[in-house]
Amino acid sequence: MYRHSDAAVACAHEDVARLIAGEPVERDALLDRLCDIAEANSPVVRDYWRATARGRGIPDSAFKTRPPYLFPDSPPVRTFTTSGTTGGGRGRASYSARGMELMRLSILESARRRVVNGLDRPAIVRLVPPEAAAPHMVMAYGMELIATTLGDPDLSAVVVGPEGIDHGALATALDRACAEGVPAVLIGGSLAFLNACEELERRGLRWALPPGSRVVDAGGFKGVTRRVAVDDLRSALTRTFGVGGDRLVNLFGMTELASQLYDRCDVPVGPGGERPKGAFPYVQPEVLDVRTLAPVDDGPGLLSVVDLCLVDRPPVVLTGDMALATPHGVAITGRAQRGQSRGCSLTLDRMTAREEPAYA
User: Fold this and answer.
1) What is the pLDDT of residues 283-304, one digit of tens each?
2) Which of 7, 63, 79, 348 is the most exposed place for a label (fewest CB within 10 A)?
3) 225-234 long-range CB contacts below 8 Å, 24 or more apart?
4) Rounded to whole angstroms, how far apart are CA atoms 189 and 201?
5) DSSP category for residue 292
6) What span, in angstroms and rounded, lies between the C-alpha atoms of 61 and 259?
7) Rounded-to-integer distance, Cα 184 and Cα 207, Å
């Protein structure tokens, strides 16, 4: 069993940090070392991989029952919880200090590449609560980190309060960016953007944001009965903010992951117009057959994500999301329906068959 303070754990952490920084690190060997730690420290993971395959993703549903955490000798410094919108209660993901540092590095490096790429201190306007108001929401943590580290300290703003989106504050923040000629980056949940666009349109408010401005919406419409096509949301964003094309970027994140996946190009490949997500050296999406969980190179299946920034739990998560493997990348097309993900449910049965301490 590895202790959190062991040299092998420290070395793995340092190598992931080097990989994020763009230094040459043998990725497959690093993944293998992280799997070694997970096998040695978790009987549940070891049995699960013996019954399935070594490195198979941990089903996201397991985080709602006995969330894995590999270092009982080092209690977590932070725990994030899911919204609980997809059924089965709230999931929990806990982080050690090393895990939080890798999450921080991963969020910022990905944001430099896909959120503020080419921009110098834009006005980052967040349609999510401030971290202090939602300490267990990983989106609040990540978006505040991006804004305070990469955004203009005077023009950046958070426009969500106890009553929801403050549309007056949003209008003021965008007016200020336009007056200063500073590109604005709006970031928030997809549903928040849809609601904001509808309310701003009702008020007759529209902007032509400064060149370089962009909108980054997170997720989709999980747990919402209303179905909205990707291009319908994009059209609303363009009408309201004057931003279009590859300046509209969707990101996929999960409480169970330390890293995020971003649209890599403006090519609609999914049935609802979903754009393909790209990979970074430290996080890569995979598509698996819904019954056999064999890799799919072209076509639909379940989404699995290899996230090397997960040092506190196994570095692969088998999500409950459907995805489409294409030559352009992996498009995430929505949640798996009951009966659609038989492979996922079978592996979950094996995963939760025995007791193991949970940390929260």
Assistant:
1) 999 999 999 999 999 999 999 9
2) 7
3) 228/190, 228/194, 229/272, 229/273, 230/268, 230/270, 230/272, 230/273, 230/274, 230/275, 231/268, 231/273, 233/190, 233/193, 233/194, 233/197, 234/273
4) 18
5) T
6) 18
7) 11
pLDDT of res. 357: 42
Q: Which of 254, 253, 256 is nearest to 68 (CA)?
A: 256
Cα gap 253→113, rounded to integer Å: 16
The set of residues, in sequence order, having a beta carbon less than 8 Å from that of 232 and lying 6+ positions away, is none
Q: Which pLDDT score is estimated for 221?
A: 64
Alpha helices by DSSP H, 138-229:
138-150, 167-180, 190-202
Dihedral Cα 79, 82, 84, 89, nearest 10 deg: -40
User: What is the pLDDT averaged over residues 135-146?
Assistant: 97
- pLDDT per residue over 162-187, tens digit each? 999 999 999 999 999 999 999 999 99
